[in-house]
């Protein structure tokens, strides 16, 4: 040792307090702070994208729930020739209203008050508001009444703040008479060509029916597959094949499922186009892998001691699974199911492939009737030229996001409420 | 709707069978008090009888529903009204189809008077065969139910049998995923094969002109060159979107896992996850309504030519935002998988946190991060709505992010919406594009999963 | 303790030879289970090698030996819990009341009802105390009325010495009990299906000394009503609770006999080494 020591250059002790070192350390800390700030910046930027998106949607969409109205005085006794309130009650009410000619009554009243061109101020479907008012409150026909009817779309947009020049002029003329009311059409109507008359109920109902079918198929199939793969499947090539296909399905782009639905459900099986049934089936195939994967994790989390305990007192394998494992895994499975269903609810592309983009003016009555769903409705409205559709599109987005938010909150609640540490 | 009533009736009868089976089995335990003399609980005997009653009948109904349309058509053709039908196969088929849908109530009025004359024969045939099917199904329910009921005895291993059936059901359920995969593959291959019999695969894969509206020219040139589509897809999904998503996602993950206080993390993580939960159609609308016009105005103001209101940049940036949480959670997992001993080792030498992250954690986690990015790319190129709504339809081969490009998914949607007959090369081209998309995403996923798995194994 | 020794010393000494250790029978009482030349393989690896043993009704039989000697594996053969491990292969003959339990005609579910098991770690179901006990009788159809079921639950809990502690909170979750109570709940659960044999796989290894004492006391009380086989790594425990002891080493049965003889006067050198603490 001693002999080699002579060749090793003596190393000076590090001068930690020296200027150079202090400077270096300051630089390192500055770099540390920069890095940290960069990370924080990335998060804040990401979060502000979300905030910006929500603000834009809510800002536009909020106006979709309101409508601009003008008062119209209708002298019912004179115009209907003395109809009585009892005509519009009971079984024949709808038929009697139809024969009344409400449209003409409204047009005449409007022309009396707003001149020959007055009807152009109003939405083409505004007489329907009067018709439903009569059905809701038959006594109205026995007297003069002032009703607030929705105006035409351009004036509506202009009154709300960014319309065309000609519409702005009309708004200026009508200043003082225009008012803002709640747009109940939007919640209870279906698609229409006039933005003042459109509603989301048709699309919402289509979504609900489609989701119901998806759940009906994807949930049992997903849960049973998860149980099979975790509890029974022997380790062999065949099982590997099943596992590989499930994992792959989870990664296949959704539009491919649309192509499958088109080629198999529509062309091969001859199921009806645009129907909720086909949409539900297609989305079920897409959702099932999500349920299987989360289900397997939930089943895996059930400790083996529970299985042994049940086996030890003579429960059969099937009883162990259905009496113990499944109930304990259920909260986890449900969480995964809700997340999968939320994804399916927001899905658009595969449904376009199977023709669910049709113009649907009446809510679907069954699973084989033509239907559309909320996201597709949003897509269709976003393509409309009429500016009145912008706020409707955003309003529909708000409704869709509310549904998704509720579902996700439910999933988080379930996860926290039933999460068990073994 | 008689179908669903029949179905319900069979289920109800199954319930009754269950009840009788149970009652009979209860009798066994009353007379055989010795332990183990009765093999199964009464419930299982009940299920045994019920499944015997329902199963064969439902199977029969399925077979019947497949077989009976042919029988009905034969019967209708045998009627005197059928003699007036044209001999041309195609016209004949159209008339028959119309008559059938009127007879079954899906259509109200016929456009072809000949169809109207066929409605009556169809109606008779349908009700005749429906009646036969119904009676046979109900007879089967009774016959099989009684047969099973008579077979009940104390030593019958009803539970074992029920469990075997349950097991088969489980296996069948898990097969559906495989069947779906095969279905996707088969339908894509089948339709693509038809497409490639009309358009050469070489032209499709290497052609640079995409203009599918054109009819086939004299030398068979068709405008099905997909290279501009592939470029657009890569440009938006793999380049622009990743330029946005990788730094933001990675830095978010680093900050959240290494620096953030627990309270901040508990709030920010779910907020980032919300970004992943927003439906793509909403992003698409956001891109088209807000981002694209803003970018165009910006481009015009700095004097870039060719700026379009539908730009690759708008679609790519919004897609990148959508992918952020995905990249972030993959990076989060990879960083968490690095053994803490490595981190501690670096910190113990006096390295700062950021030095440790940059020099130790990230290099160690790199394979995992790369795998995650590959998964993100595969997701981005398969994304449809954002590009449909914001990227445009012009098949440009340009690297100018402010101009419009089109992608594979956009064109699939474009080709399949509208009214084309199913056999035109235009429609079939969508399946060929779908096949390419399917194979590429599959490969990306397989590679990514392999990389991630290798990486996990290295630290286990 | 004295009673135990008295009891044990009154029986005859083990039948055993130096060269052929697989002792078969150790003493009196009606035979409950017999095993002959039992081998167990886990894949290629042999875990149990030619074990022959008789389990009698009136005695508590303890299996002792160093860890990894195969005593738990062998115990799990007695009610075919090894069936749950796909690679485990059991050969040889194991009978319960003269019936071969590995015969195809034997229903494994009924076998496990007759040969109950208590595990190393208490594993109550995450259900109420009542449902924990009632689960077995329900799946085996042992009670036809609610009263009968209530009765089974009460007697099982009483036999397990838990009734006094839980009678007023039968609807509480079984997992809310203390570790020792949980293990007695598991014993009560096994008792509820009216087994003939109870297998206990190191039932006290996860418990504190006081809880252990209670379980041991319980084993004393249950003796005679059920044939009990207990695996333990604790030699003092074997000496305290059992009348017959089998010593396992590397998958073979080294010695089997009256507990007091094994501990005071073992015939095999390996046994002596183990008991005096030379290895294990």
CATH domain class of the largest domain in chain B: Mainly Alpha
Q: How would the global form of chain C be characterised?
A: globular
- Largest chain interface and its two residue counts? A-B, 82 and 89 residues
Proportion in β-strands of chain C: 15-25%
Can you give a write-up of this model?
The complex is a heterotrimer of chains A (422), B (460) and C (280). Chain A is mainly alpha-helical and 422 residues long. Chain A folds into 2 domains: 63-182, no CATH class; 201-418, MetI-like (MetI-like fold, Orthogonal Bundle). Helix content of chain A is 66%, strand content 5%. Chain A has helices at 2-5, 19-62, 76-80, 93-100, 102-114, 126-136, 153-160, 165-173, 184-188, 201-232, 237-251, 254-268, 276-300, 304-312, 317-345, 349-353, 374-382, 388-418, and strands spanning 66-75, 144-150, 179-182. A 3-stranded antiparallel sheet of chain A has the order 2-1-3. The mean pLDDT of chain A is 85. Chain B has 2 domains: 2-156, no CATH class; 227-458, Orthogonal Bundle (MetI-like fold). Chain B has helices at residues 2-31, 42-77, 89-103, 113-151, 158-198, 201-206, 227-259, 262-277, 280-301, 312-337, 340-348, 353-382, 385-390, 408-416, 425-458. The mean pLDDT of chain B is 84. The model of chain C is unreliable at 1-23 (pLDDT under 50). Chain C has a single domain, classed as P-loop containing nucleotide triphosphate hydrolases (Rossmann fold, 3-Layer(aba) Sandwich). By secondary structure, chain C is an alpha/beta fold. Chain C has helices spanning 2-9, 71-77, 108-114, 129-140, 146-159, 163-166, 179-192, 209-222, 235-241, 259-264, 269-275, and strands at 31-42, 45-56, 60-64, 88-96, 99-100, 115-118, 197-201, 227-231, 244-249, 252-258. Chains in contact: A-B, A-C, B-C. Chains A and B meet through helix 2, helix 10, helix 11, helix 12 and helix 13 of A and helix 5, helix 7, helix 8, helix 9 and helix 10 of B.
């Amino acid at each position: 040792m001693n002999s080699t020591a002579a060749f090793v250059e003596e190393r000076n002790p590090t001068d930690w307090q020296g200027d150079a070192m202090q400077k270096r350390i300051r630089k390192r800390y500055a770099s540390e702070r920069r890095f940290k700030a960069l990370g924080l910046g990335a998060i804040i930027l990401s979060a502000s994208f979300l905030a910006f998106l929500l603000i834009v949607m809510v800002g536009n969409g909020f106006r979709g729930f309101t409508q601009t109205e003008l008062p119209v005085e209708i002298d019912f006794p004179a115009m209907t020739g003395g109809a009585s309130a009892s005509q519009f009650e009971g079984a024949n009410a709808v038929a009697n209203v139809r024969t009344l000619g409400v449209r003409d009554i409204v047009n005449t009243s409007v022309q009396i008050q707003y001149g020959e061109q007055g009807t152009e101020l109003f939405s083409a479907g505004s007489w329907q508001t009067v018709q439903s008012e009569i059905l809701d409150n038959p006594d109205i026909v026995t007297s003069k009444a002032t009703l607030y009817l929705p105006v035409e779309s351009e004036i509506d947009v202009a009154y709300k703040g960014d319309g065309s020049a000609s519409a702005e002029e009309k708004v200026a003329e009508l200043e003082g008479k225009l008012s803002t009311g709640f747009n109940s059409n939007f919640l209870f109507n279906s698609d229409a060509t006039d933005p003042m008359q459109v509603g989301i109920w048709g699309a919402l109902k289509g979504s609900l029916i489609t989701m119901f079918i998806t759940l009906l198929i994807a949930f049992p199939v997903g849960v049973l597959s998860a149980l099979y793969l975790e509890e029974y499947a022997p380790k062999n090539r065949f099982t590997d094949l099943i596992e590989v296909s499930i994992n792959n399905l989870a990664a296949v782009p959704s539009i491919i499922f649309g192509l499958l639905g088109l080629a198999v459900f529509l062309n091969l099986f001859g199921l009806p186009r645009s129907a909720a049934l086909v949409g539900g089936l297609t989305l079920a195939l897409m959702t099932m892998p999500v349920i299987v994967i989360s289900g397997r994790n939930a089943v895996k989390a059930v400790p083996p001691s529970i299985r042994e305990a049940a086996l030890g007192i003579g429960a059969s394998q099937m009883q162990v699974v259905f009496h113990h494992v499944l109930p304990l895994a259920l909260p986890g499975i449900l969480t995964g199911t809700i997340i999968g269903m939320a994804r399916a609810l927001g899905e658009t592309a595969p449904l376009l492939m199977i023709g669910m983009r049709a113009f649907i003016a009446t809510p679907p009555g069954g699973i084989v009737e033509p239907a559309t769903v909320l996201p597709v409705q949003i897509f269709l409205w976003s393509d409309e030229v009429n500016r009145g559709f912008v706020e409707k599109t955003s309003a529909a987005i708000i409704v869709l996001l509310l549904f998704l938010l509720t579902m996700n909150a439910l999933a988080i609640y379930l996860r926290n409420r039933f999460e068990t540490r073994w | 709707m008689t179908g669903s009533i029949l179905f319900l009736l069979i289920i109800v009868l199954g319930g009754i069978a269950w009840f009788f089976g149970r009652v009979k089995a209860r009798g066994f335990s009353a007379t055989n008090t010795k332990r183990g003399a009765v093999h199964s609980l009464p419930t299982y005997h009940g299920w045994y009888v019920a499944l015997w009653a329902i199963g064969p009948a439902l199977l029969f109904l399925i077979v019947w529903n497949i077989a009976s349309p042919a029988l009905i058509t034969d019967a209708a053709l045998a009627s005197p009204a059928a003699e007036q039908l044209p001999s041309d196969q195609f016209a004949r088929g159209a008339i028959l189809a119309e008559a059938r849908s009127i007879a079954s109530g899906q259509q109200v009025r016929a456009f072809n008077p000949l169809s109207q004359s066929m409605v009556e024969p169809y109606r008779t045939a349908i009700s005749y065969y429906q009646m036969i099917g119904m009676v046979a199904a109900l007879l089967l329910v009774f016959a099989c139910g009684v047969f099973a009921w008579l077979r009940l005895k104390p030593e019958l291993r009803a539970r074992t049998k029920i469990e075997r059936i349950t097991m088969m059901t489980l296996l069948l359920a898990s097969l559906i995923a495989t069947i779906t995969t095969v279905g996707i593959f088969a339908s894509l291959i089948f339709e693509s094969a038809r497409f490639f019999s009309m358009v050469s695969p070489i032209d499709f894969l290497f052609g640079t002109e995409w203009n599918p509206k054109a009819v086939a020219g004299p030398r068979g040139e068709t405008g099905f060159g997909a290279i501009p589509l592939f470029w657009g897809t890569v440009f938006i999904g793999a380049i622009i979107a990743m330029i946005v998503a990788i730094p933001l996602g990675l830095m978010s993950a680093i900050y959240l896992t290494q620096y953030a206080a627990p309270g901040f993390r508990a709030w920010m993580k779910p907020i980032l996850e919300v970004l992943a939960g927003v439906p793509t159609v909403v992003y698409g609308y956001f891109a088209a309504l807000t981002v694209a016009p803003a970018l165009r105005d910006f481009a015009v103001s700095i004097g870039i030519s060719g700026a379009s209101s539908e730009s690759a940049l708008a679609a790519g940036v919004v897609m990148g935002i959508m992918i952020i949480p995905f990249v972030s959670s993959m990076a989060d997992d990879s960083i968490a998988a690095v053994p803490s001993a490595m981190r501690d080792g670096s910190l113990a030498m006096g390295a700062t946190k950021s030095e440790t992250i940059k020099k130790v954690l990230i290099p160690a986690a790199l394979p995992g991060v790369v795998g995650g990015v590959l998964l993100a790319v595969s997701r981005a190129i398969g994304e449809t709505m954002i590009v449909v709504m914001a990227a445009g339809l012009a098949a440009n081969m340009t690297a100018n992010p402010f101009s419009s490009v089109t992608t594979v998914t956009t064109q699939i949607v474009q080709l399949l919406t509208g009214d084309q007959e199913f056999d035109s090369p235009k429609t079939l081209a969508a399946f060929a594009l779908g096949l390419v998309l399917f194979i590429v995403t599959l490969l990306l996923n397989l590679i990514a999963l392999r990389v991630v798995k290798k990486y996990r194994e290295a630290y286990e | 303790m004295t009673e135990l020794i008295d009891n044990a010393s009154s029986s005859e000494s083990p039948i055993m030879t130096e060269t052929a250790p697989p002792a078969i029978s150790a003493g009196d009482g009606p035979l409950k289970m017999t095993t002959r030349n039992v081998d167990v393989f886990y894949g290629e690896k042999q875990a149990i090698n030619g074990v022959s043993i008789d389990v009698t009704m009136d005695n508590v039989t303890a299996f002792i030996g160093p860890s990894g000697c195969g005593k738990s594996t062998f115990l799990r053969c007695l009610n075919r819990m090894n069936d749950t491990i796909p690679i485990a292969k059991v050969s040889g003959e194991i009978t319960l009341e003269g019936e071969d339990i590995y015969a195809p005609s034997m229903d494994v579910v009924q076998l496990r009802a007759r040969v109950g098991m208590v595990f190393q770690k208490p594993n109550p179901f995450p259900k109420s105390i009542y449902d924990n006990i009632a689960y077995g009788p329900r799946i085996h159809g042992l009670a036809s009325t609610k009263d009968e079921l209530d009765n089974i639950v009460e007697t099982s809990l009483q036999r397990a010495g838990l009734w006094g502690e839980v009678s007023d909170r039968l609807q509480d979750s079984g997992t809310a009990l203390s570790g020792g109570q949980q293990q007695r709940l598991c014993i009560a659960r096994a008792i509820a299906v009216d087994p003939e044999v109870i297998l206990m796989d190191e039932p006290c290894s996860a418990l504190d000394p006081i809880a252990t004492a209670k379980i041991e006391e319980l084993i004393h009380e249950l003796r005679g009503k059920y044939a009990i086989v207990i695996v333990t790594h604790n030699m003092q425990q074997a000496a305290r609770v059992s009348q017959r002891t089998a010593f396992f080493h590397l998958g073979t049965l080294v010695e089997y006999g009256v507990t007091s003889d094994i501990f005071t006067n073992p015939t095999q050198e390996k046994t002596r080494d183990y008991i005096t603490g030379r290895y294990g």
